[in-house]
Design a protein that fits this description.
Blueprint: E1 2-6, H1 10-21, E2 26-31, H2 35-45, E3 49-50, H3 53-60, E4 64-67, H4 74-83, E5 87-91, H5 98-111, E6 115-118, H6 125-135, E7 142-150, H7 162-178, E8 182-190, E9 200-207, E10 212-218, E11 225-232, E12 235-240, E13 245-253, E14 268-275, H8 283-295, H9 305-324, E15 328-329
Parallel strand pairs: 1-2, 1-4, 2-3, 4-5, 5-6, 7-10
Antiparallel strand pairs: 7-11, 8-9, 8-15, 9-10, 11-12, 12-13, 13-14
């Protein structure tokens, strides 16, 4: 399949590298508005480069593209690619506004093209295995999902805050793992380093199935942490998304106390801990292989445009909640 990458920043460079590592892929072009960046990537990977994405679409005629440009440009670039007949994977968030995201979803359907959104954590081996075990009922009833996504300030980011850049990952994962939709959202946010947007947020979600979601997200922690726990009837799963490790901490029913005043109480106690042996792989490679398979009409797994739209709606609801100090009820 003929593919191209639009955007030569950190994420675009990774897309370009992975595409060149995949079989049956012909990388026909890269677009970046910065001439020096385009020149370096052309020399490194030996691909034609363009300064204007419309020129790339007209001359290179790719069948599929990834869009890794600043968030404010997602809608225009992705829409141009869809109208040019391309299948599109646009990095998250799908767009900067709900209205723009809705237009992309409609346009992809009208053009009969695949629209995928780059929520890369869906393709983390530990989260894939966790989803399989939750769907198999191994945890019993699910009570809470708690996501911690912390790290230093990324100087590549200027156009959005931490909610749009990072919380969208965990909002998508929570929906995916729970199989349920949030009904209300509340968040508190602060700005300490970022000049115009929030760089710290703590949020809470209530899901239709009664589960609670908790998020701690910031750009203020001097070490990177990507951790998710799911607590339920039979214990707790813990995921380290950086190492792709999955653990299970078993609930063991506490024995009755020996003195009469609390002999009727029961609770949970520490049981066995299991670390699962997983076959790990680069999530971006799994994501792009699934996208190309879906683009070719195969069974490849993607995060759909509709899923990307919902993650954006939730992120914007968190921002609105933090700004108004009000609970936001989701439609």
């Amino acid at each position: 399949m003929r593919v191209a990458v639009i955007g030569g920043g950190a994420m675009g460079r990774n897309h370009l590298r992975v595409f060149r590592e995949l079989g049956d892929v012909d990388v026909v072009g890269l677009c970046d508005t910065d001439e020096a960046t385009a020149g370096r990537l052309s020399a490194l990977h030996g691909v034609p480069t363009y300064r204007d994405h419309r020129e790339l679409l007209a001359e290179a005629r790719p069948e599929a593209v990834t869009v890794a440009v600043p968030t404010g440009l997602h809608h225009q670039v992705a829409a141009d690619a869809l109208r040019a007949g391309c299948h599109v994977l646009v990095e998250k968030p799908i767009a900067s506004t709900v209205e723009a995201a809705e237009r992309l979803v409609r346009l992809a359907a009208e053009e009969g093209r695949v629209l995928a959104v780059g929520h890369i954590e869906r393709f983390n081996a530990a989260l894939i295995e966790l989803k399989r075990r939750l769907d198999g009922g191994e945890l019993g009833s699910t009570y809470q999902i708690h996501a911690r996504r912390l790290g230093p300030f990324p100087h590549r980011i200027r156009d959005v805050g931490v909610v749009i850049d990072l919380a969208t990952h965990d909002l998508d994962i929570m929906r995916h793992l729970s199989g349920s939709e949030p009904v209300r959202v509340f968040a508190e946010a602060n700005r300490h380093i970022h000049t115009s947007n929030e760089d710290l947020v703590c949020g809470q979600l209530r899901f239709q199935n009664g589960m609670l979601g908790l998020l701690e997200i910031n750009w203020l922690t001097p070490t990177k942490i990507r951790e998710l726990t799911v607590t339920g009837q039979r214990g707790m799963f813990q995921v380290d998304q950086l190492t792709q490790d999955l653990y299970f901490y078993e609930n063991r029913e506490a024995s009755a106390a020996s003195w009469d005043s609390i002999s009727v109480l029961r609770g949970v106690n520490e049981g066995a801990m299991t670390r699962f042996a997983l076959e790990k792989s680069e999530p971006l490679q799994v994501e792009l292989a699934g996208f190309l398979s879906a683009a070719a009409g195969g069974p490849g797994q993607i995060v759909s445009g509709q899923d990307g739209l919902r993650a954006l709606e939730l992120a914007l609801a968190m921002i609105r909640s933090a700004e108004t100090n009000q609970v936001v009820v989701m439609p």
